[in-house]
Amino acid sequence: MSNTELVIEFSKFLVPSLLGFGAFYYFTNRWVEVQNQKIKLASLKQAQPTPTTLVESTNAKTFLPLQIDAVQRLVLFLERISPTNLVIRLVNPGMPAKAFQQKLLENIRSEFEHNLAQQVYISSEAWQIVKNSKEEVVKIINMSATQLEPTALAADLGQNIFEIAAQLKQQPTEIAIETLKRELRDKI
After folding, report:
1. Domain ranges in the chain?
2. Which residues are CB-neighbours of 93 under 8 A, at least 6 positions away?
3. Comparing C-alpha atoms, which of 81, 70, 146 is closest to residue 111?
4. CA-CA distance, 42 to 178, in Å (whole number)?
5. Integer distance in angstroms from the first to the last C-alpha of the chain?
6. What are 74-109's pLDDT values in tens digits?
7. What InterPro entries does the record tag this protein with (predicted)?
8. How far apart, in whole angstroms, are the C-alpha atoms of residue 39 and residue 17?
9. How far is CA 113 from CA 7, 77, 88, 110, 118, in A?
10. Distance separating alpha carbons of residues 73 and 79, to the nearest angstrom
11. Comparing C-alpha atoms, which of 79, 54, 41 is closest to residue 181?
């Protein structure tokens, strides 16, 4: 067999093999590219927030500042109605004790009504503790008033309130403030 015939015979096998290999290589590369595009598309879909996630994210961004404001206002409310702060802020030593008692209770009621809407932004448990705290302060004031003579003055009532408050391990307003702070820390 001559060289030419050998090359032709060899070409009969080589050309179809090269064409087959070329086709295999082309289609394999195309398949890999399509799979990579599918993976990229899937990762993009996961990265994009779903409408529910977007709404929740927007609500969280909007709601958290309102919750922080509510906690701040309620802490201020609780500080303002703590027995010692309340007496120091409102005392009028020459006023009759009964009138001073009414003034203290009216101030607590007014402050509470002013902050009623804040309950929307805190848990029901925290709101209940805030209400209980307010009621405990009212009890301290009323208990102090019952221990006085009818002719007692505001200074006497204030003194009794200080004494009863000093006997407590922890002020009711402090308990409520700690609860609000803990709840806010848990949300952040």
Report:
1. 1-48, 51-187
2. 153, 154, 155
3. 81
4. 46
5. 88
6. 999 999 999 999 999 998 988 999 999 999 999 999
7. DUF7935
8. 33
9. 104, 10, 21, 5, 10
10. 10
11. 79
